[in-house]
């Protein structure tokens, strides 16, 4: 964090000196404009969505559930006038909702776990429409919903119920179709990056990965604890980590590398802060029983970690060469 603050101060000073040397001073009463345009795209791991990641601030609500302690909003406060943020991230977004397809946001509507009194919400445009030729930086954190991670978790909960935490019922049921799901993520991610480069040819694009959700030592996870992974068995948690979440990050990293884009690795820095760790940065099925649903999303501490790494990547991308 100290390194990030130092780099921010240095870049801010350089930008201010350059602006003062090359342009007239702002007239009295005129508000200075930001030096760089940043567009934040993504799913619920970007938007925030849960109470543990802050309060929603859209009035009226659009169902995307962006929260004030999500990492784009944290960075926006930290970077001040250096970067002008447009945050169109949306809970439940797929990769195609970034690229070309309008999305009908779900808000907090996750039956049978929770009902949202404002549901249904009007459709929102494909997020890439917010990216313009003059955009300088694009961050995008997406892929989990194309993979079907929420659906997989729910299936694992159902199949693990009554198992006593023994066996791998979810792996046995779903393992064969995970490779095809990952192939779909890869194809959609490649198409999305191509679209973003087309819309903003000079922008730096940062592909944000997913944090550590499941610990390497799954004996930390208590079976039937719904503030952790509920009825998902230890064996299925090992499978989810090794064959689902880690390969998802690998697909995103590989896709970004093919185009020379930057991959922002959140997985390594969040190790030791999984759902099952005492200092968790990701909440379990519930943050608090019975009324605070989280369904495995980062809390404010997780978003702060993401903010540190994404902000550093942004500053590196816009720093003079």
Features:
globular; alpha/beta; five-stranded parallel beta sheet; Rossmann fold
What does this structure look like?
- With 321 residues, the protein is α/β, with parallel strands linked by helices.
- The protein has one domain: Rossmann fold, CATH 3.40.50.1110.
- It is built from 10 helices and 7 strands.
- The strands form 2 sheets. The protein has a 5-stranded parallel β-sheet with strand order 2-1-3-4-5, with helices on both faces.
- A hairpin with a 3-residue loop joins strand 6 (286-288) and strand 7 (292-293).
Please write the string of helix (H) and strand (E) elements: HEHHEHEHHHHEHEEEH
Q: What is the topology, as strand order, of the major beta sheet?
A: 2-1-3-4-5
- Largest sheet geometry: 5 strands, parallel
Share of helix among residues? 25-40%
Low-confidence stretches: 1-32
CATH superfamily descriptor: SGNH hydrolase
The radius of gyration computed from the alpha-carbon positions, rounded to a whole number of angstroms, is: 20 Å
- What is the count of helical runs? 10
Form type: globular
According to CATH, the fold-level topology is Rossmann fold
Write down the domain tally. 1
Structural class: alpha/beta
- Can you identify the CATH class? Alpha Beta
Beginning-to-end CA distance, first to last residue? 23 Å
* Average pLDDT taken over every residue: 91
Number of strands: 7
Give the second-level CATH assignment, the architecture. 3-Layer(aba) Sandwich
